[in-house]
Design goal:
single chain, 185 residues, alpha/beta, six-stranded parallel beta sheet
């Protein structure tokens, strides 16, 4: 369908996509989601960037994964994808992840890979309760991205998700019954 890229998270997914593309006599553009092993300081259920999280290719295996992708017909790996979590309320985890990604970008380019896209994920916190939460301002977030990647020549892709829509409406409801249980109501 001509989509910009597939974000792939494993060697088996790379192999499968290459096989499908070859069967269709096409080339699929991919970004490899790598796990930068950065603690975003969020709730464990919404953390996605630590080594023990199930997402992405292990940081130590990233360069080998790009080399593997480059050896296959049917795909071209032109991007790095990261996502470290949701509801992040400090720029520090982003800075750590972005600096690691910038170093990986340099190493991949030095190895001959043409990387022209960076999908930096999302996760910027939403001020659900203004008195209790004070996530970074999106302008400061953009400045951080510009400072680290501005000279990279890469297209920057962001996934702001609920930051855009979370406070756009309210849910109005009323309780119509309650259920009594043995251990919990």
């Amino acid at each position: 369908a001509g989509i910009a890229q597939f974000n792939v998270e494993s060697l088996s997914e790379i192999d499968m996509l290459a096989g499908v593309a070859q069967e269709l006599s096409m080339t699929a553009t991919i970004a490899l989601r790598v796990n930068p092993d950065v603690d975003a300081g969020t709730h464990e259920k919404i953390s996605t960037g630590l080594a023990e999280n199930k997402f992405g290719i292990a940081w130590e295996d990233a360069e080998a994964a790009f080399a593997h992708a480059a050896s296959l017909d049917g795909i071209i790996a032109t991007g790095i994808d990261i996502h470290i979590g949701s509801q992040i309320t400090s720029l520090q985890p982003f800075q750590t992840a972005f600096e690691k990604t910038a170093e990986l970008l340099e190493r991949l380019r030095a190895a001959g890979h043409t990387i022209d896209r960076l999908d930096l994920g999302g996760g910027l916190g939403v001020p659900y309760q203004r008195d209790l939460e004070n996530p970074p301002n999106p302008v400061a977030y953009a400045r951080l991205i510009s400072d680290i990647f501005g000279a990279s020549g890469c297209q920057i892709i962001l996934e702001p998700g609920r930051l855009i829509a979370a406070n756009a409406g309210i849910l109005v409801s009323s309780v119509i019954r309650s259920k009594r249980g043995r251990a919990k109501n």
